[in-house]
Specification:
Number of helices: 12
Order of helices and strands: EHEHEHEHHEHEHHEEEHHHH
Distance between the termini: 26 Å
Shape: globular
Largest sheet: 9 strands, mixed
Number of strands: 9
Length: 377
């Protein structure tokens, strides 16, 4: 099972597709190390995210607490505060670090609202490599604004000798966005074909299965159903900055309990969790994020092995890529079945306001905009 902990909604970036920075949490109200110590051992994977987790001054203490509780601990970061990550990587060389990047040079800075952001990220990556980091990588979100550069970003990761993670635009309470969407779904999906083909040519088995994850992202981008049913509240869960535990990071109505007030067993094995699992089984959202997708791909008996369908797809298309044959994407993706949107609001760059302080709103209003319903499709 996997767990994601949203340590804070404070953030030093100003992304156009994520407005968490407009809703910063108060440091004194954020989930404490003592509360996180209640997380049981035995997780396959724990991810520390935000907001920006390096803004937590007690991040080293949190890492010390959670590192032994999972086979792999990850920090998802914007990479703007590399000096805070270096000591952690020196202490735990296999700590997984993924640095968010949305393009080369100014392209990244405009999308993410980060002054000199690309330059700072690459400097951070260099420091972490020098510090002996063994599981480093870049992570990008497919969107109209950067889809022409995703193969270049993948090649950049290969040049640096690090991993490359991907996602697509989503709506959800963690992002404080309910109006994200692609302007041209088909164009974006077609560009992902090039990345998948490139990944299948690599010598990394891990990268081959990332290619399959990207196939799922193509379906999500086109507005189609998931390749594999979601297993939220069974194979993964989220803890938000106020210690509330959710089935996922999209629907705030799927709250399971509160870790500060309850034990993990009470939350995860109680009647509320059982009811929320039934709601997950009927969920109409077509989310396809790394956390929910990779857990759904796992073999239920052997967590380190994939289910048959992803394995079969990878084997067949790895052979095709190796032989220089075209991947028949039309067999797996229906380009005639594209969700038609109402007008998608234009995403606006916030680069010019990157250093403007944001006021912390009342906790009770944080997820209010999602009470009226929204849709990932």
């Amino acid at each position: 099972m996997d767990l994601a902990v949203i340590l804070t909604y404070r953030c030093s970036a100003r992304c156009s597709m994520c407005h968490v920075w407009k809703h910063p949490t108060r440091p004194e109200a954020e989930v404490t190390p003592a509360t996180l110590a209640k997380v049981p051992s035995g997780f396959d994977f724990i991810n520390l995210s935000g907001g920006e987790p390096t803004l937590r001054r007690d991040l080293p203490e949190i890492v010390d607490i959670l590192y032994p509780k999972a086979c792999k601990l990850e920090i998802s970061t914007n990479g703007l505060h590399g000096d805070r990550l270096v000591p952690l990587v020196k202490k735990y060389p296999d700590l997984k670090i993924r640095i968010s990047i949305e393009g080369l040079g100014e392209k990244n800075d405009v999308i993410r609202g980060e002054k000199n952001g690309f330059e700072k990220k690459m400097a951070t990556l260099g420091k972490l490599i020098e510090a002996g980091g063994q599981d480093l990588g870049l992570a990008t979100t497919f969107q109209d604004e950067n889809v022409d550069e995703i193969v270049k970003l993948y090649r950049l990761s290969q040049e640096q000798g690090v991993e490359f993670a991907t996602s697509a635009l989503h709506n959800g309470f963690q992002f404080f966005k309910s109006d994200n969407g692609q302007y041209d779904r088909v164009r974006v999906a077609r560009k992902v074909e090039d990345l998948i083909t490139e990944m299948l040519k690599s010598g990394s088995v891990k990268t081959w299965f990332r290619a399959y994850l990207n196939l799922g992202l193509m379906g999500k981008i086109l507005g189609q159903d998931r390749l594999i049913p979601c297993t939220a509240a069974t194979d993964f869960a989220f803890v938000d900055p106020w210690s509330d535990v959710y089935a996922c990071n999209v629907r705030p109505d799927l709250k399971l309990g509160n870790l500060a007030e309850q034990s993990w067993d009470e939350i995860f094995h109680g009647d509320v969790a059982a009811e929320k699992r039934r709601e997950v089984a009927a969920c109409p959202q077509n989310c396809w994020m790394v956390g929910s997708a990779k857990t759904a791909m796992r073999n239920p008996k052997y967590a380190k092995l994939p289910k048959w369908e992803p394995l079969r797809w990878v084997l067949i298309n790895k052979i095709r890529a190796t032989l220089g044959l075209r991947i028949p994407f039309e067999r797996y993706v229906d380009y005639d079945n594209v969700h038609r949107d109402e007008d998608i609001p234009k995403r606006i760059s916030h680069l010019e306001t990157w250093d403007t302080p944001q006021k912390s709103p009342r906790v009770s209003t944080q997820y209010a905009e999602f009470d009226q319903g929204f849709f990932n499709r």
